Each structure stands twice: as C-alpha cells, then as structure tokens.
Amino acid sequence: MKPEQYLEELVLRYPALNSVMDRLTEAYVVMEKCFRQGGKLLVAGNGGSASDSQHIVGELMKGFEKPRPLTKEQKQALLRVDSVRGAQLGRYLQRTLCAIALNANTALDTAFANDVNSVLCYAQQVNGYGREGDVLLAISTSGNSENILYASVAAQAVGMTVIGFTGKNSGKLAAFSNILVQVPEIKTSHVQELQMPVYHCWCRMLEESFFGERVC
C-alpha cells in the first residue's frame, strides 16, 4: 500500500481528521525527508503525551507492522566481527528509524532539574541531540506546556523543524511550530484519543516508505 493510502484510510475511520489532512501530510513529508537524509526524530510531551512519545519511538525503532530484516551488507559486517554472535544479531536485529523520547532519560532530567531548572530539561536534551535537519515532534494537548515551548525554541535555534501536535486550541506552541497539527478536539482526553490514530498512521506510512520491500 502506498504511504498516502494510509491517510485516506485514517480519515475514513476518523472523519473529523479530514479538516487537518493537509497538515497531516505536511508533517509526514517533513519526517520522511528527515529520515531519508539520515536525521533523527526527537519526541517530547508530558503525562499522557510523555507515554505517547515513548509509544511513537517504540513503533519507529523496531518493526511495527512489517518485518525489517537487516540488509546483506549489515549481516556480513556483523559476521566479520564475530561469526557466532554476528549470526545471531543478523538473524534478529531489525532496521530502525532513529527516534528519541526526551522523557525517557530519567537520570539526566532529574540531575538537570535539581541542578539547573526543571522547565528546561527537554530544551537541554534538544541542545545536545538536535542537529540541523532533525525534527522535534512537540506534543501538548493545550499547546501551553512551558517545557515544550522552551524545547521548541531550542530546536528552531539549531535548525530543526518543529511539528507542534496539539488540540484545537493550539496555545502558545503555534508561534514556535514550523508545522502545526491541531486535532479537532479541546478536552485533553479527547485530544489524546485522536492523536493516537494520527501518530500510528505516520508510523505506518514511514515504515511503508522505508521498509515496504523486504530485504533478504
């Protein structure tokens, strides 16, 4: 199935998302280009959005709906290092799309929060991980989470593209987003209920684009 067909399927299942179809497509194109050029996706959120951040990374860093076997070249490189362990690694490792959930680095976050400023924890990680051409997926149902705003400023400063992922009321995040995806709900739980099928769709599209053809 072509990547764009996943969006058509998404809108059939969730008609309310038809109003943001162009933004969904735009965000996908930016992420696809980032990965195509060897970049990475940083994902940040709080509470349920923090869980969503890790969920997204989980779908990108391993097989989601398709097998992602290593290439012959990758398998041969492993065998050259160690014939036994390399064979095992070649059999079970999967190709990835490089993604990092910024809420997952507990030691760094708590150290920075204790020593410097808790609101700037995500911005500090963006400052360390972020490179020009990378993408920050900034998730905030209200659009007003200060740590997400600071991370977005830091991301734009290093030349990253910021995709703001919010509810209908985009809040202050709109000013710091290169692309703003506003799912048409206001209540936090309802926003999150629509965000999950959206990011699942993005992950499916990316997987199709990069791993649609099985490599033996």
Describe this structure in words.
- The chain is α/β, with parallel strands linked by helices and 216 residues long.
- The protein is built from 9 helices and 5 strands; from the N terminus they run ααβαααβααβαββα.
- It has 2 domains: 3-61 and 96-211, Rossmann fold; 69-95, no CATH class.
- 53% of the residues lie in helices and 10% in strands.
- The chain has a 5-stranded parallel β-sheet with strand order 2-1-3-4-5, with helices on both faces.
- α2 crosses α9 (188-211), α3 (48-60) packs parallel to α9 (188-211) and α7 packs parallel to α8.
- The model has no long low-confidence stretch (mean pLDDT 96).
Short description:
The chain has 216 residues and is α/β, with parallel strands linked by helices.
